[in-house]
Amino acid sequence: MRLPRVFLVALLLLFVSALNAQTIRFTGRVLDPTGAVMPRVDVKIFQGANTLRETKTDAAGNFALDLPAGEYRLEATAPDYRLYQQALRVVPNMAPLSISMAVAAPDSKVDVPSQTDRVNLDEAANLTSTTIAGDALKDLPEDEESLMAYLQALVGGAPGEQVNIVVDGFTGGRIPPRELIQQVIIDRNVFSADSTGGARIQIVTRPGTGSWTGGASFSFRDSGLNAMTPYALTKPDTQQRSFSTNYGGPVIPGFLTMRFNGSITEYELEGNALRAITPDGARSDGVTSPSKNRNLNLTGQLYLNMIHTVNFNVSYTSSNSENQGIGGFNLPERASNSKNHSWQAQFIERAIFNPTTINELRFRAFRTNSSQEPVTDAIAINVLDAFYGGGAQNRSNNRNLNYNFGDTLRWQVKPPLNLQIGVDATYMKNRSVNENNYRGTFVFSSLEDYLAGRPVTFTQTTGDPSLEVSQWQAAAFLQSDWRMYPKVNLSMGVRYQIQTNLKDNNNIAPTVGFAYQPRQGTVIRAGARISHQIFNIGSVEQLLRQDGKTRQFQTVITNPSYPDPFLNGTGSTTGITSTSFRVQDPNLAAPYSFNTQVSLEQNLVKGWRFGASINATRGVRLIRTRNINAPYPGTPLSDELLTRLNSFDPAVQAAAREEVDRMRPYYPIAGNILQFESTGKSLSKNLSFRIMPPANLTLWKIGLSVPLTQYTLGWAHDDASAQNQYDWASEWAPASGDTRHRVESLFMLRLPKAVNASFTVTAASGRPYTVTTGRDENGDQTTNDRPAGVPRNSVRSPGTYNVSMSLSKTFNLKKPEPARPANNAFAEPQQVIVPAGGQPIIIAPAVVSAGAPGVPNPGPRLTFSVNVNNLLNNTQVRGYSGVLTSPLFGKPTGAAAGRSMYLSMSFNF
């Protein structure tokens, strides 16, 4: 039985070998945008970095070439026309090619030949966007959390502002490992209906096309290389070891390519130092949290035929973390351990029906299982802005499932007009067992009250901890881009979205954009849009879990006895017990934002460019929770009533508490009723200036690349919280993330001897915070009351700045191959892009090879890197105490880590 199988395999191998050796003639014709034939167009065929064939079209625009069967890249070039690139799979009996060239967009004439130095109408020249690719990718952080924080810092928006993460066309997925990233595109504002608005971070992963390539890297850090964390009196011994490897290429040439990536990271991470004041004195210790992360990833491309291509991505991630949650006010007893493992599979089928019609079909499945266990099983003790002790009380077990389906059709109706039509649907299902606060929490206003045994409140959750919740959400959009005139581009679109768990079906969101080039080297852009947000499944889960009827109940006791909140000398609590729960406003609607932006982009001398933009975003119908059963009217109580509330006589205190509770609209049925409402508002305004040097800038024989240098002057206001639940209008104040001045800069130096250095500089003015009394002075069972006449967020912390550096040295292990011609930049064809302005569709590169045009192919190479965060070791305060009863009032409560360094070595071929 074994012989026939071997014989069949041998026949298959012989057939594949014969197919690859067969010489096939294929033909094609090149046309201009009007359909007229184009003679003397240069047509070249590449495989990898090598030019295999080249010819010119004849007088009828025709060309013919002979090649073995396989996978190639075709390029067509002609003066005053855009470079045309196309993935080419040569097979027997293939149909003739039809190539439609695009007229180059009008742009300014500068003395620098690089197209990236020119300002024009195309979105690719938009100075509000930043692209990170090539060697700059080495400067990205390795772990997912740090990478996310780094990219959000480069967005340059106000903290808390909406940022959309899009990975290979999918939103809401995990950020891939750094080794799998081919390109990162950061756009501060996107006036296109295919997105939900706001800043967007697009990540394009690196598939395994082209020749076989691979590599391995190892990084190491040790506390001996780091400075001590500010405010910490000790520096614990920590280490981090990370190993990753990747390998990929054509498994079946011309049919299947794959790339594998695996990584493992073990580290004892030093988190925020303790900054607590306990009855035994101050605690300022370094904290260590061990973790172990694993990641396996397989990506690939399946070339079904000349029309259909399938990209796939399958990944598995697991992590174990111990001693989490310690630092700041949280004592070591509040630690918890967590486990997480997840898998993800996604598929993208691209169909290039003809040079003007392309369809992209997407599907993704994502599942994650996570659990958390507290180290100490005890009642929690919270002394406001002094110390948090007792148990963490965050025992939970979650299983989340997510399916996403999308389809986008890109159609060039005619050369000046492009259309995009798409749909997107997501199904989510969460199963969880949540026992948060099942032991209960005491809250004390001050250390004195803690020592005296006088808590403000005691809260405890009881009931059924298990819950299953699901949600469907879907959207459809239509987007058009019309080059009205050679110097005027107009884009218009509309997006409609709908979801379950929300009775709001009127979510129509129009968008419009305009670009005008009054003269060469100057472009003015303007845009406006409405963006609807989703009522997220997490809020739905809160409503269902804490409905106060069938699942969980939250008991709140004001001025309880201590340590047993239910007992005192007479056998009963000295406080008043009530049940709190959450409800949904019958008029709850999807929140939305209205955004406008105007920008100017200007060519300067010798390839320098300048950009300025102003934008405003108004949030409408923002979702918040309001206590609709707070004591009316919610203002501070009289001094006489407060005195009785704080009396040591249980009878006097109980009578005063009942007098306050009688002010509640729903007394005596319930305690606090937290209602989800869509009544919040916000407004942010930003004025940004950006400078872009030429791509080939050289200073003192040192190459300089500056992808980003931007200054932003911003304002952000909202009414996100209130001490008076019946007067939110008076709480309009600077938002907690309001930073008046922000600076972001990323620049890289190409030094001699294959040494590269990069620096990331960020700086921001201080954020506002609120001064509170630390006591419940209006009887609503919360401690967010402020002194009389003191507005919300009326105090600001000092500003911060950070400088990070990366230094790398590359050694070529083999003599580099000869340089490629400058106009033959090698890229593996994969991603399809439809540029704005009515230009024909271009098959753009998805994988940029190492080395730029005109640079030798480096071959096998070894790279050593040193990465330093907080290079200047300056103190970056992360928060200030605004609680009057805290011994740390007006002082820092935490800071970012001091200077830290890690070393890495990578081998690539």
Compute the separation of the termini in Å.
42 Å
What form results from the Cα inertia axes?
globular
Q: Would you tell me the overall average pLDDT?
A: 81
- The helix content, as a percent range, equals under 10%
Give the C-level CATH assignment of the largest domain.
Mainly Beta
Rg from C-alpha positions?
Answer: 31 Å
| CATH topology call of the largest domain | Maltoporin, Chain A
Main pleated sheet = 22 strands, antiparallel, barrel
Count of helical regions: 6
- CATH H-tier superfamily of the largest domain: TonB-dependent receptor, beta-barrel domain
Please report which band the strand proportion falls in: under 5%, 5-15%, 15-25%, 25-35%, 35-45% or over 45%.
Answer: over 45%
| Subunit organisation of the chains | single chain
- Given the helix and strand composition, which structural class is it? mainly beta
* CATH architectural grouping of the largest domain: Beta Barrel
Identify low-pLDDT runs: 1-21, 105-116, 569-576, 819-857
Number of strands: 50
| Overall number of structural domains | 3
List the topology elements.
Blueprint (H helix, E strand, L loop, with lengths): L1 H20 L1 E9 L10 E6 L2 E7 L5 E7 L1 E8 L6 E7 L6 E4 L28 E5 L10 H12 L7 E5 L2 E2 L9 E7 L11 E7 L7 E10 L16 E14 L3 E15 L5 E3 L2 E3 L4 E16 L4 E17 L11 E19 L2 E18 L5 E4 L3 E3 L6 E19 L2 E18 L6 E4 L2 H6 L4 E7 L2 E20 L2 E12 L8 E12 L2 E11 L4 H9 L6 E7 L17 E9 L7 E12 L5 E19 L11 H7 L4 H12 L11 E20 L5 E2 L2 E17 L14 E2 L6 E11 L3 E10 L3 E2 L25 E2 L3 E13 L14 E7 L8 E7 L12 E9 L7 E4 L11 E4 L4 E9 L1
Parallel strand pairs: 1-7, 9-12, 22-26, 33-36
Antiparallel strand pairs: 1-4, 2-3, 2-5, 5-6, 8-11, 9-10, 11-12, 13-14, 13-50, 14-15, 15-18, 16-17, 18-19, 19-20, 20-21, 21-24, 22-23, 24-25, 25-28, 26-27, 27-32, 28-29, 29-30, 30-31, 31-34, 32-33, 34-35, 35-36, 36-38, 37-38, 38-39, 38-40, 40-41, 41-44, 42-43, 44-47, 45-46, 47-50, 48-49
